[in-house]
Design a protein that fits this description.
Helices cover 63% and strands 0% of the residues. By secondary structure, the chain is mainly α. It comes from Flagellimonas algicola.
């Protein structure tokens, strides 16, 4: 607990728990965090559109099991597939930011 008393920001906490930016452990954490964010955004957008996973999959040309994996942050996703799910399946546009 003493090691944590000097932590004052969220970034310091993440660095303490997962390492500095660019390290293998931190990269794995960041990848998981991004997948979680995408999964939550997909789930929320699907619910707002009043679609089931099966309906969304049909519209996007994929399988229900794939939508389920994505919503549970369990699968890898190609950018082209993500765009197709949001644009064709949900009628939404995707904007990307590279840092």
């Amino acid at each position: 607990m003493n090691a944590n008393k000097n932590i004052r920001t969220f970034e310091e906490l993440i660095e303490h728990e997962h390492g500095k930016i660019g390290t293998e452990n931190r990269n794995k954490y960041e990848e998981g965090a991004q997948m979680f964010i995408i999964s939550e955004m997909l789930k929320e957008a699907r619910k707002q559109a009043n679609l089931t996973q099966e309906q969304l999959a049909e519209r996007a040309g994929t399988k229900k099991s794939y939508i389920s994996k994505l919503e549970n942050a369990k699968g890898n996703i190609q950018l082209s597939t993500l765009i197709r799910i949001f644009e064709q399946g949900l009628g939404r546009r995707i904007g990307l930011t590279f840092l």
